[in-house]
Specification:
Blueprint lengths: L3 H9 L3 H13 L4 H21 L5 H24 L7 E7 L6 H12 L3 E9 L1 H10 L4 E5 L7 H12 L5 E5 L5 H7 L3 E2 L3 H12 L2
Parallel strand pairs: 1-2, 1-3, 3-4, 4-5
The structure holds CO-5-methoxybenzimidazolylcobamide.
């Protein structure tokens, strides 16, 4: 019988082949895709997030774990859609206008996927209007903004203003090396996270009913 604890362990150790093998085995045994996601993939990524926060894991380990998770998600995603499984929420994420840094944003994106969110990645150098369009078309619960430059940080406030002007009831979350909670408060962002693991916690709080 497919061992979902072993699946979580395979994710934590970034063993892509093993994680794919167990997911396929579970699917063959008709284990519910949501159970495989929650008890295997998300459980594993939660541990990865905690270890990353505690400095027991560094960026490469997280990327390897995320790669194993993504390969497993490629199998599960169509099945989840078929089963009508609801994601925890929809997050539109991007690096703000003028900013090309995407390594941190990609990590946040992967961790959010691992945390059960549908993530729509708008990419880098994303204009406020694009965030508004995507938030509308994807019916986003959260718009997540990343900035790595002090010169591009003010773009976050522009996005928040554009979302307000468009009268969208969507939460905003910001992060990136120069960003602080104080800055988030100043510009009226709903949440701030210092790292990718905390971003999952914050997104869960922001999307809680
Ligand atoms: Co640039 N760069 N860079 N750079 N770069 C920095 C950021 C810099 C601090 C280097 C330095 O001078 N010491 C400096 C910024 C100074 C400042 O503004 N205070 C800088 C500069 C100046 C520049 C250029 C202007 C250089 C030039 O051309 N003169 C230029 C700007 C280009 C542009 O964006 N328009 C530039 C270009 C580049 C490269 C293209 C070469 C490359 C980016 C490649 C890429 O991303 N694909 C690059 C890199 C790699 C860096 C450093 C070395 C590393 C950034 C990184 O990926 N860190 C960086 C110096 C440094 O940080 N040591 C630097 C790893 C990543 C995992 O961390 O992105 O912080 P980070 O993400 C973390 C958290 O911040 C958080 O979670 C992540 C994981 O824990 N987080 C979020 C991030 N987004 C979040 C969103 C959230 C929540 C959490 O919610 C939505």
């Amino acid at each position: 019988m497919a061992d979902l604890n072993a699946l979580a362990e395979a994710i934590i150790s970034g063993n892509r082949d093993e994680s794919v093998r167990i997911v396929n085995e579970a699917v063959d045994e008709e284990v519910a895709p949501e159970k495989i996601l929650n008890e295997g993939l998300t459980a594993g990524m939660d541990v990865v997030g905690k270890r990353f926060k505690n400095n027991e894991f560094y960026v490469p380990e997280v990327l390897i774990a995320a790669r194993a998770m993504q390969a497993s998600m490629d199998i599960l995603e169509p099945l989840l859609a078929e089963a009508g499984a609801k994601p925890r929420g929809v997050v539109v994420i991007g690096t703000v206008k003028g900013d090309l840094h995407d390594i941190g944003k990609n990590l946040v994106s992967m961790m959010l996927k691992g945390g059960g969110f549908k993530v729509v990645d708008a990419g880098i150098d994303v204009a406020p209007e694009t965030f508004v369009e995507k938030a509308k078309s994807e019916e986003a619960d959260i718009v997540a903004l990343s900035a790595l430059l002090t010169t591009t940080m003010p773009q976050m406030e522009n996005v928040i203003s554009a979302l307000k002007e468009a009268d969208l009831s969507v939460k905003t979350m910001i992060g990136g090396a120069p960003i602080t909670q104080q800055y988030a408060d100043e510009i009226g962002a709903d949440g701030y996270a210092p790292d990718a693991a905390s971003a999952v916690d914050r997104a869960r709080e922001l999307s809680a009913p």
